[in-house]
Design goal:
Order of helices and strands: HHHHH
Mean pLDDT: 76
Helix content: over 70%
Shape: elongated
Distance between the termini: 76 Å
Radius of gyration: 34 Å
Number of helices: 5
Number of strands: 0
């Protein structure tokens, strides 16, 4: 009886191993196809992003030629910095100056943040706003 069991065992084990190998091969092929699809999708996404950024750069270059758009940022910066300076100077206790006598109201909530962003952009430090938000949390 033992000889019968021992004679059947290697054949049964080899069939089990063949089944496991076929299953592993099919899983590997499926995952390789998934990875290939991911790489293709990511490549297409980056290529589309590059094209979009090139279009944005072309639009900005075209806007620089227009007198209206060429003066938009400097004008917005000038208005924002003038208002910010007036509010700031009105809050200082200068000799002979009563604080708040100019009655220049500060911008409310989100508009104050927009004004600060315009000023930071005009000074050329708008990229530091992200760093400030990161450390303010």
């Amino acid at each position: 009886m033992w000889s019968l069991i021992l004679s059947v065992l290697p054949g049964l084990a080899s069939k089990l191993l063949d089944f496991a190998n076929k299953r592993a091969d099919s899983d590997l092929a499926r995952h390789q196809a998934d990875v290939g699809a991911d790489v293709a999708t990511n490549t297409q996404t980056f290529q589309a992003w590059i094209v979009a950024q090139q279009q944005v750069a072309a639009a900005r270059n075209a806007d620089r030629a227009s007198l209206l758009t060429a003066w938009m940022m400097p004008l917005a910066f000038g208005i924002a910095i003038t208002h910010f300076g007036a509010v700031t100077f009105d809050c200082f206790p200068w000799p002979g100056h009563e604080v708040g006598s100019w009655r220049i109201a500060a911008m409310p909530g989100p508009y104050l943040e927009i004004q600060k962003t315009i000023i930071w952009a005009g000074v050329g430090l708008v990229g530091l706003l992200g760093v400030k938000k990161t450390f303010a949390r």
